[in-house]
Design a protein that fits this description.
Number of strands: 0
Largest sheet: none
InterPro entries: Ankyrin-SOCS_box_domain (IPR051573), Ankyrin_rpt (IPR002110), Ankyrin_rpt-contain_sf (IPR036770)
Low-confidence stretches: 1-7
Pfam family, one: Ank_2
Number of domains: 1
Oligomer: single chain
Organism: Leucothrix arctica
CATH architecture: Alpha Horseshoe
Mean pLDDT: 87
CATH class: Mainly Alpha
Keywords: ANK repeat, Repeat, Signal
Protein name: Ankyrin repeat domain-containing protein
Helix content: 55-70%
């Protein structure tokens, strides 16, 4: 139990430190002097943690809304994996690609299904995300929900054609 408490504390402190860095970079007066790469990295982090002011500031200061990290994940993937619908909606309004593919051919919809964010799945599907899009392993959102054992998500997805 002590090991778990320590790991949780360390993870929380890492999150706090990283969030502070993203906010300082995105919101400080010198942020406009940061290059596009730095702004785009701040965008990815801010989208993952759902901090709208930092997302807005990064984009206002030149971040590429479709910037990809080394795994080819975009801010849209990051926000979908954490269930930040408000961030996804804002990114789409700014030209974000909701069907960007990672190195494993995952789109944001796959991430939302994997982590059980039904409200995000609903929005992405209503916005035209392809329900039968396959990952590089051949998995669809139906397969991902089944593997995750998410009966509620499987029932929700059953409305869509397999």
């Amino acid at each position: 139990m002590l090991c778990f408490k320590y790991a949780f504390k360390e993870q929380t402190m890492t999150y706090i430190k990283m969030m502070m860095v993203a906010m300082v970079l995105a919101l400080s007066p010198i942020a406009s002097h940061a290059n596009q790469q730095e702004q785009s990295e701040a965008l990815l982090f801010s989208a993952e943690y759902g901090h709208m002011p930092s997302v807005v500031a990064a984009l206002d200061n030149g971040a590429n809304v479709n910037h990809m990290n080394s795994d080819r994940e975009t801010a849209m993937h990051k926000a979908a994996s954490r269930g930040h619908l408000h961030i996804i909606q804002y990114l789409r309004a700014k030209g974000g690609n909701m069907n960007a593919r990672t190195v494993k051919n995952w789109i944001p919809l796959h991430h939302a299904v994997r982590f059980g964010h039904q409200h995000v799945v609903n929005y992405l599907l209503a916005s035209g995300a392809p329900v039968n899009f396959r990952t590089s392993d051949g998995a669809t959102v139906f397969d991902i929900a089944e593997v995750m054992g998410n009966v509620r998500m499987m029932n929700f997805l059953s409305r869509y054609k397999r």
